[in-house]
Specification:
This is Helix-turn-helix domain-containing protein. This protein is of the alpha+beta class and 239 residues long. The chain folds into two domains: 162 residues, no CATH class; 56 residues, Arc Repressor Mutant, subunit A (Orthogonal Bundle), CATH 1.10.10. It is built from eight helices and eight strands, in the order E-H-E-E-H-E-E-H-E-E-H-E-H-H-H-H. An eight-stranded antiparallel beta sheet has the order 4-5-3-2-6-7-1-8, sandwiched between helices. Helix 7 crosses helix 8. The chain is globular, with a radius of gyration of 19 Å. It starts with 15 loop residues before the first strand and ends in an 8-residue tail after the last helix. 29% of the residues are buried. The N terminus is likely disordered.
Length: 239
């Protein structure tokens, strides 16, 4: 383990950043990046009410076939679906019922920053806020994921967690329901807000298995709630 500080006690003076390495190909993102000699990165997570975890990954230079075959071979992944494919790579969606390392970090009080793998080398970074025991976060990860190694434990100058794009999404995500977020994300990913629109509201509603009226209702509520956070501190709409 290479480290710039010792994980000994609670974070008193600032933030701690921890970094883990995973090279076990049994982890989906690691195995896919190794097989395809590519980079795979977690972009977003959604916790559904039934306990299912939805994960959105981006991949560069990885094929649809490899994604599906790797998902089928990975315990805890219930389904895989390609969301978008373009010049910059592919965005795909996984429905996960197994325990993932990001959930372990969150459960121990850490704040996930990034999860990615390149050519079979997986890295996960997280911040430990002031007042949280960094050894508890590290211990929880190493115990739950024994094939994971701690490679860095750094003291940061900042006293508050940084707002990465992932962190900003999590703040916004807390303001909307699971269904609102899925509708908003699907509309965005499929070019609903582009001019001209890549897909109509009716087409996106069909993708989601809902009526056009329900799509419009959820989309308006989601946009109103997100804008409320951005512009003013007010109550959100649960519609």
């Amino acid at each position: 383990m290479s480290s710039t500080s010792k994980p000994t006690d609670r974070t008193a003076d600032g933030l701690i950043e921890v970094e883990f390495e995973i090279t076990d190909p049994a982890y989906f993102f690691v195995g896919l990046s190794e097989r395809e000699s590519c980079r795979v990165q977690l972009e977003e997570m959604i916790h559904l009410a039934d306990g299912t975890l939805i994960e959105f990954f981006s991949g560069r230079e990885c094929s649809r076939t490899a994604i599906r075959e790797r998902a089928d071979a990975t315990t805890g992944i219930d389904s895989a679906r390609i969301v978008h494919e373009g010049q910059n790579g592919v965005l795909f969606r996984l429905a996960v019922s197994g325990r993932c390392i990001v959930e372990t970090i969150e459960g121990a009080g850490g704040i996930p920053e990034s999860l990615a793998a390149t050519d079979g080398d997986g890295r996960v970074t997280a911040q430990v806020p002031r007042g949280t025991d960094s050894t508890a976060v590290v211990g929880a990860v190493l115990e739950t994921h024994p094939n994971t190694s701690l490679v860095a434990h750094r003291q940061l100058d900042a006293s508050m967690p940084s707002f990465s794009p992932w962190g900003v999404r999590e703040v916004l995500r807390e303001q909307v329901t699971d269904r609102q977020w899925e509708v908003l994300r699907t509309a965005y990913r499929h070019g609903y807000f582009e001019r001209p629109r890549a897909h109509t509201g009716e087409e996106i509603a069909e993708m989601l298995g809902i009526s056009s009226a329900t799509f419009s209702q959820h989309l308006r509520a989601a946009m109103r709630n997100v804008l409320t956070v951005a512009i003013e501190d007010g109550a959100t709409d649960d519609a």
